Amino acid sequence: MNKLMMLTTAILAGILIFPIAADAQKQTGIVAHRGFWNCEEAGYAKNSVAALRCAQEAGFWGSEFDVNMTSDGVLIVYHDGDVEGKNIEKHPYAEFKDFKIKNGETIPTIDQYLEQGKKYPETMLVYEMKPHSCDEVEDRFIELTIAKLKEHDLLDPQRVMFISFSLHICEVLAKELPGFTVQFLGSSQSPDELAEKGINGVDYNHGVYTLHKKWYGQARNHNMSVNAWTVNNKKDMKRMFRMGVDQLTTDNPLEARALMQEMKITELK
């Protein structure tokens, strides 16, 4: 065996033993979960306009926020399905408009939130559409969402992406808004199953990737956008960064940034 053949054999053997990680050089975007709320400037208020502004000013790739719809069709930025025991979907906006969140802001309407959102075109708005009671209500929610994004000149896949635990919402968005990133948040569907429904992204809890070890590879086989939530400790962040996720959603975005620098991983901006 000549030297060239010996070298080729050694290289091939090495590849078989230590497969090259396809995503080893991938860049990752940090998504501030419910905005960069975990700071004095935002008053530690999740889903506040101040938290969005702080995420934008800090230069994180994206800022995530949660949207619910009132009974009279007003979209508000609030995580839970109820406010002080009142179900948002079953009560009009007038019953929520004066409620103060932790930093003294009232619950933002989608109009107030998007007004701030469009001030920083480089920050991706990660729009979580909360599940509602039935497909018909969710269809109305989608219709109003699209109308509001158009009204604020933000119906643009470079400005907004969608995430939801509702499979119905994800399916409709994927059909109605081709070209937009739509990520399913639940763990009831594999990437293979989601791809069959036309959904082009996954945003699993970080533990799901360990529980279902083949799902990351499935997502990559379908050229899906891959996100992980909500990754708050250093050990889990390291695991997700090494795996090669496109986005990492966290309540501790500054810690994620520092770890990326330590690991020499390029942060998407």
Can you lay out the helices and strands and say which pair or pack?
Layout: H1 3-17, E1 28-32, H2 49-58, E2 62-69, E3 75-77, E4 82-83, E5 86-87, H3 110-117, E6 124-129, H4 135-151, E7 160-164, H5 167-176, E8 182-184, H6 191-196, E9 201-205, H7 206-211, H8 215-221, E10 225-229, H9 234-243, E11 247-250, H10 253-263, E12 267-268
Parallel strand pairs: 1-2, 1-11, 1-12, 2-6, 6-7, 7-8, 8-9, 9-10, 10-11
Antiparallel strand pairs: 2-3, 4-5
What report would you give on this structure?
This protein is α/β, with parallel strands linked by helices and 269 residues long. It has one domain: Phosphatidylinositol (PI) phosphodiesterase (TIM Barrel), CATH 3.20.20. The strands form two sheets. Strands 1-2-6-7-8-9-10-11 form an eight-stranded parallel β-barrel, surrounded by five helices. Helix 9 links the parallel strand 10 and strand 11. Helix 2 packs parallel to helix 3. The longest helix has 17 residues. The radius of gyration is 20 Å and the shape is globular. The protein starts with a helix and ends with a strand. The N terminus is likely disordered.
Class by SSE composition: alpha/beta
Distance between the termini: 50 Å
Structural domains: how many:
1
CATH topology: TIM Barrel
Q: Can you count the beta strands?
A: 12
Strand residue content? 15-25%
Mass-distribution shape: globular
CA radius of gyration is 20 Å
Helicity range of the residues? 25-40%
CATH domain class name: Alpha Beta
CATH architecture: Alpha-Beta Barrel
H/E element sequence: HEHEEEEHEHEHEHEHHEHEHE
